[in-house]
């Protein structure tokens, strides 16, 4: 009888990979990062509350003639920052949510933040994102996320690479 341990390891690895793969979110949906209508100044916070963000997810901001700043809570409340934690004005900005907790986003263009072009995003801790509550899965999920970060692969590329590794491992067991 062949040793089934490699098969079980490959199966567990692929199952864990499916538990957490990073996602990319298009901020604001189809409209992107634009000044909301005057009667909807909480538009982006509403959008954010309808999504569940995890560590290593990415926010994609699409905009024209504007900018995206990551700022402190106080700067978010004031709609002004002289030293943002992150700044981009290229029209197509991706920002990786690299930790749990709150992220504060504002437009850097004069008057846009005051008109509602700002957002607060809450990133859930690894154990609070709906994964199984056992220690092994959480540890492996975190390791998988860290591996993705180190390799700088997007979630699809990482999933495909790990799927290929799993298939090779299964072939090795059956044909060796």
Summarize the structure.
38% of the residues lie in helices and 20% in strands. By secondary structure, it is α/β, with parallel strands linked by helices.
Main sheet record = 5 strands, mixed
Oligomer: single chain
Shape: elongated
Cα distance, first to last residue?
13 Å
- The number of distinct β-strands equals 8
The overall pLDDT average reads: 79
Structural class: alpha/beta
Spatial ordering of strands, largest sheet:
2-8-7-4-5
DSSP helix count?
Answer: 5
Q: Name the poorly predicted regions.
A: 129-153
Helical content class: 25-40%
Radius of gyration: 20 Å
The ordered H/E elements are: HEHEEEHEEEEHH
What is the percentage of strand-forming residues? 15-25%
Topology:
Elements: H1 5-19, E1 24-26, H2 43-49, E2 53-54, E3 58-62, E4 68-71, H3 73-78, E5 86-88, E6 92-96, E7 101-106, E8 118-124, H4 135-151, H5 155-175
Parallel strand pairs: 1-3, 2-8
Antiparallel strand pairs: 3-6, 4-5, 4-7, 7-8
Helix pairs in contact: 1-5
């Amino acid at each position: 009888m062949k040793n089934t341990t490699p098969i079980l390891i490959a199966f567990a690895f692929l199952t864990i990979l499916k538990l957490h793969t990073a996602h990319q979110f298009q901020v604001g949906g189809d409209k992107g990062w634009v000044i909301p209508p005057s009667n909807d100044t909480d538009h982006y916070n509403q959008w954010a509350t309808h999504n569940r963000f995890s560590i290593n997810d990415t926010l994609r901001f699409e905009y024209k003639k504007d900018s995206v700043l990551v700022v402190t809570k106080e700067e978010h409340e004031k709609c002004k920052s002289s030293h943002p934690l992150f700044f981009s004005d290229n029209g197509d900005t991706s920002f990786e949510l690299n930790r749990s907790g709150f992220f504060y986003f504002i437009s850097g263009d004069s008057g846009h933040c005051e008109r509602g072009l700002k957002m607060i995003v809450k990133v859930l801790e690894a154990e609070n994102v709906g994964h199984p509550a056992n220690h092994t899965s959480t540890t492996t999920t975190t390791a998988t996320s860290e591996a993705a970060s180190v390799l700088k692969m997007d979630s699809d590329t990482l999933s495909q690479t790990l799927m290929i590794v799993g298939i090779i491992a299964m072939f090795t067991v059956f044909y060796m």
